[in-house]
C-alpha cells in the first residue's frame, strides 16, 4: 500500500481530485490529507472520495496551518457541517492521529469510535509515550513509523514506513548542481522489510511554510523509474535566473528540458506528463501552483501503476 502524505494546500487537493476524477488512483493508494485550512476545496475533495468510494485519510490533529482554529471558530458553518457529515457517513475514510510525547485524544477535532479506521503516526522515540498511553492495546488499521529501530520494535500492528525522500534546497537554482538523484526504493522492499505499506511527502517534502515568494528560478521535479525500478528524481531548472522577473519564460526553459527527457523515453507517460506536453505545445504558463500539482499527480500515478502492475491489477 502507498500512502502519499499531502498537506492539503490548494494545489495538493486539486492534484488528488484530478487523479480521482480520471480514475488514476488504484486500490493500493490511500492518500493522507493533513488539512491546513477549512476550505471549500478540502471538503469538495473529500466528498469526491466518498462519492467514488475511494479510500482516503484525514489527519484529525494537524500540526501545521490554521485548520483547527477555523474548525473551532466556524463549527456551525456550512463547511464544518459538511465535513462532519462526511466523517459520520463515509465508509472509506481513515482517521490519522499525529502522536507526540504528550498526545491525548482530546487533540483531535472530532472523536472517532471505530478503532479499525484509525491510523497513528510516530516519528520520534519519545512519541512512544503518547502511543503507549492511547493506542498500544488498540487494533488500529495502520501505524506509521519512521525508520528508527526502537519504533519498529515497540509499535504494534500493521506498520507503515514513512519517509521524507525529497531533498529540499534553499533555492531552486541550487538544484542545477545536482539535477538527478536517488529518490526511493521503498516500493520494492516494504514487504521484505515487514511493512504493510510505505508513505512519503511526494515531491514537496515534509517541511511546511505558510509564506511564499517569487523564486529566481523555476524548477520542475519529476520522479521516474531507472532500469532497476528504483525511483529517481530529476530537477528541470530554468536558465535565466538572475532575478525573479519573467516566471513564464523561466517555466518555458525548464519545460523544454522536461519534454526532451520525455522524448528520450526516460519518463513513463502519465496524465500529468500529457498535461505538461499540452502546455509546451500551446506555450502556456499555468502558474507555479499548477506546476507543483502536475508533479505530484505524476508521482502518485506512477507509483499507483507500479503497485497495480506487481499485484496483477494493471489493465
TrEMBL record:
InterPro entries, alphabetized: Sce7725-like
NCBIfam families the UniProt entry points to: sce7725_fam (NF033831)
This chain belongs to the protein called: Sce7725 family protein
Lineage, broadest ranks: Bacteria, Bacillati, Bacillota, Bacilli, Lactobacillales
Amino acid at each position: 500500500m502507498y500512502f502519499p502524505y499531502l498537506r492539503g494546500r490548494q494545489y495538493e487537493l486539486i492534484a488528488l481530485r484530478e487523479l480521482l476524477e480520471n480514475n488514476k488512483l488504484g486500490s493500493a493508494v490511500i492518500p493522507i490529507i493533513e488539512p491546513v485550512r477549512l476550505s471549500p476545496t478540502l471538503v469538495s475533495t473529500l466528498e469526491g472520495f466518498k462519492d467514488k468510494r475511494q479510500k482516503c485519510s484525514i489527519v484529525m490533529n494537524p500540526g501545521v496551518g490554521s485548520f483547527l482554529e477555523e474548525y473551532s471558530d466556524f463549527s456551525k458553518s456550512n463547511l464544518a457541517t459538511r465535513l462532519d457529515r462526511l466523517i459520520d457517513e463515509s465508509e472509506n475514510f481513515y482517521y490519522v492521529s499525529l502522536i507526540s510525547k504528550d498526545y491525548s485524544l482530546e487533540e483531535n477535532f472530532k472523536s472517532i469510535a471505530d478503532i479499525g479506521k484509525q491510523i497513528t503516526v510516530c516519528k520520534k522515540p519519545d512519541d512512544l509515550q503518547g502511543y503507549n498511553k492511547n493506542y498500544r492495546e488498540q487494533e488500529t488499521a495502520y501505524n506509521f513509523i519512521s525508520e528508527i529501530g526502537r519504533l519498529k520494535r515497540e509499535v504494534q500492528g500493521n506498520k507503515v514506513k514513512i519517509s521524507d525522500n525529497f531533498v529540499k534546497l534553499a533555492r531552486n537554482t541550487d538544484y542545477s548542481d545536482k539535477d538527478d538523484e536517488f529518490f526511493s526504493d521503498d516500493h520494492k522492499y516494504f514487504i521484505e522489510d515487514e511493512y504493510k505499506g510505505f508513505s512519503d511527502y511526494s515531491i514537496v517534502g515534509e517541511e511546511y511554510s505558510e509564506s511564499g515568494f517569487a523564486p529566481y528560478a523555476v524548477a520542475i521535479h519529476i520522479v521516474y523509474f531507472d532500469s532497476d525500478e528504483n525511483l529517481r528524481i530529476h530537477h528541470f531548472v530554468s536558465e535565466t535566473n538572475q532575478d525573479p522577473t519573467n516566471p513564464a519564460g523561466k517555466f518555458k526553459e525548464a519545460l523544454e528540458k522536461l519534454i526532451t527527457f520525455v522524448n528520450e523515453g526516460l519518463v513513463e507517460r502519465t496524465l500529468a506528463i500529457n498535461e505538461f506536453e499540452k502546455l509546451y505545445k500551446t506555450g502556456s504558463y499555468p502558474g507555479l501552483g499548477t506546476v507543483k500539482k502536475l508533479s505530484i499527480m505524476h508521482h502518485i500515478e506512477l507509483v499507483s501503476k507500479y503497485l497495480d502492475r506487481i499485484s496483477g491489477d494493471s489493465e
